[in-house]
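Q: Sequence in, structure out?
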Amino acid sequence: MPAVSDDAPLLHDVMPWSVRPLRIGRGWPMAPDAATLRDRWALFTAARGEAERAALLQPTRARGLHSRVAQLPGHRTPTTALAGEDGPCPEPVMIQHAVHDRQWLIPDHRLIDAARPELWRVLDDRQIFAVQHALSPEAAEPPVSFCALLPDGRPPAGRAGLIRPLFRQPGGRDPNLAPGLVGLLSGLLAVEVTARDVLAWTAAAARATPAGCEVPFPTHPGDWRAGLALGGRLLWLHTRGERLADPAAGREPGAPRLPGGSRPYVRAPLPAAPGPADLEYDRDERELRIGTGRISPVSPAAWDRTSGGTRVLEAWWGRRTAPGAPASLEAMRPPRWTRACTSDLLELISVLTLHAELDAERASLAGALSERPGRTLTATALRNAGVLPVPAARRRPASVLDHREEGPDGQFALV
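A: Exactly. Output:
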């Protein structure tokens, strides 16, 4: 095993502003499809007695029927108490759940215990979020994942990590990077380095250590080019083709797809109402079995892919088929398995397969950097260059004064 330098800069310093994960506090405002959320909302607002409505809401210390909260940035939802709410369901939005799942959420601050409004303020079509995961030595998984959607930062199992937006302000302004880092790298590598380049390198080279997530930056242009090519593909994969698309580099806009010979297809129709125990994998046939339904080819690497120590495909399946608690809004599920569900599953299989194909490149880059510590930029060098330590203000959210957000009962919130 190559020796690992203990003086590489930490992601904590490379991307200094971090936000804790969302805490919804109840399961029913999130679901795999938007229609189910509208049905749940309709049932909730149809409850006339306060006791019945409270039982459906599932109050916590942070949120109850009479909680007074501001709107979420970018969403014109009511701010009156839920006790008297009788309007239509706020339009659900898609968010990133865990590393590889996408769920729908009712973007109503009255339903979410800790929504992290500072994240919603910087969410736009240029933003990329890095989600740093808690150290899990027993699971050989990348320490950071990325997404274009707002992430909830919640792993399938284990401790939640931290969310680090690439930009501190909307419109791709004010990169969330240590001041002076981009300029230092540009001078050392004799190329123009951008904030997205730094994120792509992080995707390729970040490594988990007992000290935290390290990002060993190279001082050799050849290492930098190799890392950017790998990191660009990783960011494209993580964001499902919504960021860093580049057809010339084989990264087409839109959902990533496998080549024709290895692309998964439905070989036998899936059942209309599959259950939690219906998912099986035949390793010899490279086939995913769902009751009488069949999907193939599915590589063993895609089936074995884990996040937080939990198999991704099994966790994804469980969130769509496990029954909710009786007499709760979460028990309301889609009545049938839809074509959209199947499309999502095929896309996930393709993404997991493509991720597995890049594991060897990540390991090769990590080995090369570890074997050549003199060709990496250490934390000591960053301190000598004045990049570190990071000013305390860079660890706090930026002031965003051009967002008008309604506070409780129609007042305007100061941001």
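The chain has a mean pLDDT of 93.
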